[in-house]
Write a structure and sequence with these properties.
With about 270 residues, this protein is α/β, with parallel strands linked by helices. The protein has a single domain, classed as Rossmann fold, CATH 3.40.50.150. The chain is about 40% helix and about 20% strand. The strands form two sheets. A seven-stranded mixed beta sheet has the order 3-2-1-4-5-9-6, sandwiched between helices. The protein has a two-stranded antiparallel sheet with strand order 7-8. Helix 7 runs antiparallel to helix 10. The longest helix is centred in the C-terminal third of the chain and has 18 residues. The radius of gyration is 18 Å and the shape is globular. The two termini are about 35 Å apart. The relative contact order is 0.16. The structure holds S-adenosylmethionine (SAM).
């Protein structure tokens, strides 16, 4: 998917996505910020910011003398972020609708953070280099990804559920998920190192909670998997839902596993 298509899916998902903010995105965004440690007065880029799960905590941390730019292609999510930032009086936080891989600003950043975004880039390595290139010498790059055998277990179940209605998805059955490139601490460390970053450390965060069967479908619709059912007639969507819920039962999945890796590296200089 290109950035425009990704933005369309997440924008359409804004209600379901923000329905998971309190249980998933915000706590993990807070933890990302706790590792990134934006300091008062710093300039921060939150790449793929969504509704601001990590951009808002960063804006609180940098204080009135700091600046945070939250960049995303999903206007529907950005609107939620803008409303919350306005309510909190966070005028140092700007949400901008743009492809982050085209984003540039006049001054370099002290911190670039990207939570659950890099695996959407058409070329993860080029995208990572591009983001790291926006840092000042000595600046920090922070990336948050899903830990292996957690969230990614849902994707093949979603693909298998949708494939009978969408034959073009069949070629993805059993295929690699881009998030697998950064789903262990060793892989995140190696990836950050390949971007030219140093002083790398990776934190592993266990984050699970019950997933009630009635919450499984709203979760499907909140995520990129939503793209699988876009444009399908209602009866086909119902069949995808039934197969997805059955697939979760058969796999014994009754928890939402948002366990994550938060990697940080510093640009030399
Ligand atoms: C799983 S969401 C995570 C959002 C947010 N970081 C959070 O933790 O709640 C991934 C986000 O990446 C955005 N995204 C993917 N590729 C992008 C790109 N090239 N430029 C800007 N945003 C992008 C999507 O629109 C989506 O909002």
């Amino acid at each position: 998917m290109n950035a425009e298509a990704i933005g369309g899916v997440f924008s359409a998902a804004h209600q379901e996505f923000t329905g998971w903010s309190a249980r998933l995105w915000r706590p993990l965004g807070e933890i990302t910020t706790a590792v990134a440690r934006p300091a008062p007065g710093e300039r921060v880029l939150d790449a793929c910011c969504g509704a601001g799960a990590s951009a808002i905590p960063a804006a609180l941390a940098v204080g009135p003398g700091g600046v945070v730019h939250g960049i995303d292609v999903a206007e529907g999510l950005l609107e939620h972020g803008r409303r919350e930032a306005t309510a909190l009086g966070l005028d140092r936080l700007r949400f901008v609708n743009a492809d982050v891989l085209d984003w540039r600003d006049d001054s370099p950043y002290d911190l670039v953070q990207c939570a659950y975004g890099v695996f959407f880039f058409p070329d993860m390595d080029a995208g990572g280099r591009r983001l790291a290139g926006l840092l000042r010498p000595g600046g920090r790059f922070v990336v948050t990804t899903w830990l292996r055998d957690g969230m990614a277990r849902l994707v093949p179940i979603g693909v298998a559920a949708a494939a009978p209605e969408r034959p073009e998805l069949a070629e993805h059955l059993g295929g690699a998920n881009p998030s697998e490139r950064v789903d262990t601490a060793e892989k995140v460390r190696a990836w950050l190192s390949s971007l030219g970053l140093r002083e790398i450390r990776v934190e592993q965060v266990q984050f699970t909670q019950p997933l009630h069967p009635d919450d499984a479908w709203p979760f499907f619709l909140s995520a990129a998997m939503r793209g699988f059912v876009e444009g399908l007639p209602p009866d086909a969507v119902d069949r995808v839902r039934a197969r997805f819920e059955r697939g979760l039962r058969e796999a014994g999945i009754d928890t939402l596993d948002g366990s994550s890796l938060i990697g940080m590296g510093r640009l030399p200089g």
